[in-house]
Amino acid sequence: MKTARVAEPAMPSEFDLIQRFFTRPAGAASAVLGVGDDAALLQVNPGQLLAVSSDMLVAGRHFLPDADPYSLGHKTLAVNLSDLAAMGATPRWATLALALPEVNEAWLAAFSRGFFDLADRFSVSLVGGDTTRGPLNLCVTILGETDARALRRDAAQIGDDIWVSGDLGGAALGLAHLQGQITLNADAAAACLTRLHRPEPRVALGLALAQLPRVAAIDISDGLLADLGHILERSNVGAEIELTSVPSHSALLALLPGSALARRCLLAGGDDYELCFCAPVDDAASVLAAGAVAGVSVHRIGRIGSVAGLRVIGQDGRQLQIQERGFDHFAN
Amino acid sequence: MKTARVAEPAMPSEFDLIQRFFTRPAGAASAVLGVGDDAALLQVNPGQLLAVSSDMLVAGRHFLPDADPYSLGHKTLAVNLSDLAAMGATPRWATLALALPEVNEAWLAAFSRGFFDLADRFSVSLVGGDTTRGPLNLCVTILGETDARALRRDAAQIGDDIWVSGDLGGAALGLAHLQGQITLNADAAAACLTRLHRPEPRVALGLALAQLPRVAAIDISDGLLADLGHILERSNVGAEIELTSVPSHSALLALLPGSALARRCLLAGGDDYELCFCAPVDDAASVLAAGAVAGVSVHRIGRIGSVAGLRVIGQDGRQLQIQERGFDHFAN
Asked: pTM higher than 0.90 for the full model?
């Protein structure tokens, strides 16, 4: 707005901020032209498809307003890397647009460290973005490369095994602890809060799975039931999973099977950013090998079927009545 | 946040919204895989560089909270198209992430119409994005293609002519009218508010200029002095412009040269989204031809020099003392 357009001398300009916190030599290294022009110029490798995804994180909705800025920088990029992992794509570049209520240099320094520490691990270059004043909002667009064998949600077929990487429920249990719904011991709390604040995108697993003939995949950001549900919907199939086969975070084991909270964290807990994927039964050995290559455990939790819908079978062999729903970004 | 993760039945889910308002056949047409998976898959044409830019628009900062949603949809994409125009790139794809305080279907319908009407004019496909609840925030990442002759900010050289497309100050005068700083007659107000709310990205001009041997360009989003200043900084040169040569919106002519407001709108007014560019004197005829091809007037306003800084020469031939500053996204 025009009335907002007289700069305060004490306030660093947008360009100072970008220069100081978000311009890195690395940004230019893999880009023909990086931060500082109207657009970045990038060279996509011949024969590769460009994979593009955008995620917006809002304070009070996707993270607590007082979240540690280093972890927030990590998570802001991690959730986007996780989308590329679920496509079996190689991350290459990112843009970052952020609205900040104020210029807090310590906050920005820690946030950018968290962002770049993860970016460096995956050789991702920050090539552009935008900074403006406003309610705290973080929007990353991630760019990667893949060949035609990308892991699509619509590739599941009847008879496929359903797999999950790592274990589930830790992030949701950590949030329940933060919100006082449960009190974990120090070790369990630390482990769960690490899952919540520093998710590990399964990029290596996605790349290994993309070498298989046919894999359908999604990352578990909104909860196993909700995200597997998207695969079923896009593939026009149904599924049955066994509760006891779903790998649960160690902190949940003490609570299961009795605790409704624990079961909710396991089946409907968001923020784990593990992969849920479907592959032909005959490729089970290759899936296990892919997990070994990527250094992450993979667990078979069920089977794709022709009957529409998603059924969860309990320990007693009977179908559970599931009320739990995944995180909907428009839920309240 | 976990407490926010129980869906209200009455509330359409994120996926319903994306499906209903932001999924178009066009989205899939030019994309290998469009909206609906973890990432879009795009085929960049061989030999082309990918041009990428992100812009975030925040209510109360970049637009009035009660802005007409159709115009806002137009402007949200237009400001991003303008970045590609300033690179001489061909727009191809966009992602849209939006945080909305509430689900207002009429607002979303009008916003998406404004967005897609402009996208269709430039054959831009919306290939992905994100929707979430939060303070109104609109973040677009625009993707285009260009060859190595992109229009960079750092390409200006001593002796170059400095040019501006169209005319300046109309958008800023419209905002001044909205804010009661001045009262325009109905025709002038309508013309200026169209400039403010429905900026026309100069994509065709950028593409035509990219055919010239060497052009440095930027789009005027923050005001002529501020944006030309970025070219000077990146090119490590200075410049002198003549106030009387700067093309002013017709509604300003009645006010100039007496009005400080009018001069501020002309030199420091944002939101015009015209192009400011520098080219060798010998290419003046080619620049004029490029304007003719693009159907937009181009005006020579000054000359790049070796003396650092930006000087504005007034009608009397004397240097103006310029206090006006461009819009800084961190100004208050």
From this structure: no
